[in-house]
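Hypothesis: this fold can be encoded by more than one sequence.
Test: take the structure tokens below, design a sequence, compare later.
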């Protein structure tokens, strides 16, 4: 656990590695929200909006 805390606080390299995990997750969440809005809004139906 101690190495986990020091790993998170280890300056730019630690932040870069954390960003490398958070960035794809954030993109995935935004994509899911956008697709949900797309289908709920009816834009995916054959008739369009």
């Amino acid at each position: 656990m101690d190495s986990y805390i020091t790993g998170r606080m280890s300056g730019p390299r630690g932040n870069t590695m954390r960003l490398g995990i958070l960035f794809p997750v954030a993109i995935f969440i935004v994509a899911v929200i956008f697709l949900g809005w797309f289908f709920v809004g009816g834009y995916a139906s054959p008739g369009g909006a």
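The mean pLDDT is 78. The longest helix spans residues 11-40.
Hypothesis status: open.
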